[in-house]
Design goal:
Number of helices: 2
Order of helices and strands: EEHEEEEEEEEEEEEEEEEEEEEHE
Structural class: mainly beta
Strand content: 25-35%
Oligomer: single chain
Shape: elongated
Strand order of the largest sheet: 7-8-9
């Protein structure tokens, strides 16, 4: 048998045979046997595990896509960026949504011409692109903001009617020369507060000198005078009562009207309703009546004089007759000085 190293070399394959001793033979004689290389490879465990590798795989993460994974026998796995659209080129970049796209601001440039025009209280800004349809942006003012436009120059002025400053009112009164209002904050967000010394509470009030103070109890009246058309004046003192009493034909009443005591003075229901004429002893016409006074009406009473001799039409300068006397001739002859203002009737 030749020396082993003298044999020519060759590349082994899985089906080639190797000579070895079979130590597990049941006879116990350890016979020489041939073994296939593939069988020997099958007996070699996986490195570090003691097992056999049956598959290899890769899991893709964000924006990574893996194909042909896992491999169980043989093959190639492909790892690539997730493609959600677009075409990779020198002008495109991988975007955050997985697409190849041109960054904003690149590509075909579009410019706009801006003009403005007054539209009632608003201002219209027209954006005319180099290509495409013009767009209109409308500026609508809202108080206190104001907008004005110069159509010729397309100059837009934005102003404000807002309050620019707030000041306290002028001093109240002349004695203390103070204003109870204090202005703070800013012109756009002013604060208004009441300034005074002392402590405000349910029992204090703002006094004219700018201080919170309690109000002293009301004063008392020791006495007051009561007067009338007749009678003696009376002085009313503390705890003394005054009673309003109606006279003839007058009634008085008192009532509480919302916390105010009111006294009502009214005519009695039994006031005189008629007035009778009295019997006269003056000159009268006995053929008509025994009275020379006539009374008519109840509430609106009229009094008329009846059967009385009147000389109201006597316009002469001589004496006027005021009295009339009837007498006999003998009685008349006995008068030595007749009265010029008396008419003597001889019967």
């Amino acid at each position: 048998m030749a020396v082993i190293y003298s044999y020519p070399k060759a590349t082994p394959s899985a089906s080639d045979l190797l000579i070895g001793t079979l130590t597990t033979d049941p006879s116990g004689e350890n016979p020489t046997k041939t073994f296939a290389i593939s069988d020997i490879i099958g007996l070699i465990p996986a490195a570090g595990t003691g097992g056999t590798v049956t598959s290899v795989g890769i899991t893709g993460g964000s924006f990574i896509t893996v194909t042909n994974s896992p491999i169980t026998t043989s093959g190639n796995m492909t790892v690539a960026l997730t493609d959600n659209g677009g075409t990779p080129s020198t002008t495109t970049f991988y975007r955050g949504d997985g697409q190849w796209a041109e960054p904003v601001g690149t590509g075909t440039q579009v410019t706009y011409a801006l003009t403005s025009a007054t539209n009632a209280s608003n201002t219209d800004i027209t954006l005319t692109p180099t290509t495409g349809t013009p767009d209109i942006v409308k500026l609508i003012p809202s108080a206190p903001v104001t907008i004005s436009n110069n159509d010729a120059t397309s100059e837009i002025t934005i102003g404000s009617d807002a309050v620019t400053s707030v000041t306290a009112a002028a001093a109240i009164g002349t004695t203390y020369n103070i204003s109870f209002i204090e202005i703070g904050g800013t012109a756009q967000a002013p604060t208004v507060s009441l300034t005074a010394t002392g402590t405000p509470s349910s029992s204090t009030y703002l006094r004219g000198d700018g201080s919170w103070a309690t109000i002293a109890a009301g004063g008392t009246m020791s006495s007051w005078d009561l007067q009338a058309d007749t009678g003696t004046d009376e002085t009313i003192v503390d705890a003394e009562q005054v009673k309003m009493v109606g006279g003839s034909g007058i009634d008085t009443s008192i009532a509480d009207n919302g916390g105010v005591a009111e006294v009502t003075v009214a005519l009695e229901a039994t006031v005189p309703q008629t007035i009778a004429a009295g019997v006269t002893t003056q000159v009268y016409d006995a053929a008509n009546t025994t009275k020379n006074i006539a009374i008519t009406g109840t509430q609106n009473t009229e009094i008329a004089v009846l059967n009385v001799l009147s000389n109201s039409t006597d316009s002469y300068a001589s004496a006027k007759v005021n009295n009339v006397i009837s007498l006999t001739q003998t009685e008349y002859n006995a008068i030595t000085s007749p009265d010029a203002n008396t008419l003597y009737v001889i019967v």
